[in-house]
């Protein structure tokens, strides 16, 4: 049985890991059903439609994964009391020591071209201070996109994106799983009593097992706790990446300017 191959080379590493893979997992029972219940013995209208359907489901589910994941972010911030990377730069947050935060604030203020809020300003107007910290975190994200240099940060971002998108797809995936499970149960009921030598019955049972494993994964592995843990780790690594940027700053300043003198 030759199942059509779906290439993911056209997607970058983040899209593959944080969007495509959650989509594949979300529609796994449907993909298993299409792969096992449709004959792939030769080229026909049915298997051509099925192959196209697999691709269509995959691309559609990846787009839905991103949309559903984005919709979860306000709830993530609500559950953790705000954007963690912004909170951790505040003076009233103990996650990082004050000496380290002073160094980070000074560096980021120089990069943003605006002064960091003083202790008095932050105490008097936390919202205004948070605007600076939010701008600082945005600058950090934009200047840490080198996936080789900031590999650990990238990996944590992928982990957060995967868990966020997977949680966003949890209930649509559960509904799809239910449809596949009910369909398999109906097919088995129609063929009852089951013949252990019947190839079609065997394939239906395989799809049903996939659906049950899939349901267990959604129930026990796709949770808010896992997403909040990933959010914590990514946010912390984003702040720590300031150290790398600070270490590079003297090297860039020391680099000699090109001579403008013509021979």
The domain tally reads 2
By DSSP, the count of extended strands is 0
Between the first and last Cα atoms, what is the distance in angstroms?
A: 71 Å
Mean pLDDT: 84
Q: Report the major sheet.
A: none
SS summary, helix count: 11
> What share of the residues lie within helices?
over 70%
> What is the 3D form?
elongated
| Unreliably modeled segments | 1-7, 253-263
Order of helices and strands: HHHHHHHHHHH
Structural class comes to mainly alpha
Radius of gyration: 25 Å
Assess the beta-strand content as a share of residues: under 5%
Describe this structure in words.
- There is one protein chain.
- The chain has 263 residues and is mainly alpha-helical.
- It has 2 domains: 13-81 and 152-227, no CATH class; 84-150 and 236-245, no CATH class.
- It contains 11 helices and no strands.
- Helix 2 runs parallel beside helix 9 (170-190).
- The protein is elongated, with a radius of gyration of 25 Å.
């Amino acid at each position: 049985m030759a199942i059509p191959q779906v290439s993911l080379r056209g997607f970058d590493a983040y899209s593959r890991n944080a969007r495509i893979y959650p989509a594949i997992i979300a529609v796994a029972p449907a993909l298993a059903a299409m792969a096992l219940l449709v004959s792939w013995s030769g080229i026909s209208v049915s298997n051509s439609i099925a192959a196209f359907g697999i691709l269509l489901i995959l691309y559609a589910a990846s787009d839905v994964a991103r949309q559903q994941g984005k919709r979860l972010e306000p709830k993530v911030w609500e559950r953790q009391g705000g954007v963690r990377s912004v909170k951790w730069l505040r003076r009233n947050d103990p996650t990082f020591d004050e000496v380290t935060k002073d160094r980070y604030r000074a560096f980021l203020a120089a990069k943003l071209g605006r002064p960091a809020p003083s202790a008095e300003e932050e105490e008097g107007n936390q919202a205004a201070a948070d605007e600076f910290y939010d701008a600082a975190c945005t600058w950090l994200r934009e200047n840490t996109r080198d996936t080789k240099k900031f590999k650990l940060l990238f990996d944590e971002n992928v982990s957060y994106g995967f868990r966020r998108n997977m949680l966003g797809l949890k209930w649509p995936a559960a509904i799809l799983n239910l449809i596949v499970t009910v369909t398999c149960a109906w097919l088995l009921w129609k063929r009852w009593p089951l013949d252990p030598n019947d190839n079609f019955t065997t394939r239906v049972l395989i799809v049903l097992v996939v659906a049950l494993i899939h349901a267990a994964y959604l129930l026990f592995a796709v949770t808010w706790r896992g997403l909040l843990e990933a959010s914590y780790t990514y946010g912390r690594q984003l702040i720590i990446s300031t150290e790398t940027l600070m270490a590079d700053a003297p090297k860039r300043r020391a680099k000699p300017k090109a001579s403008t003198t013509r021979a």
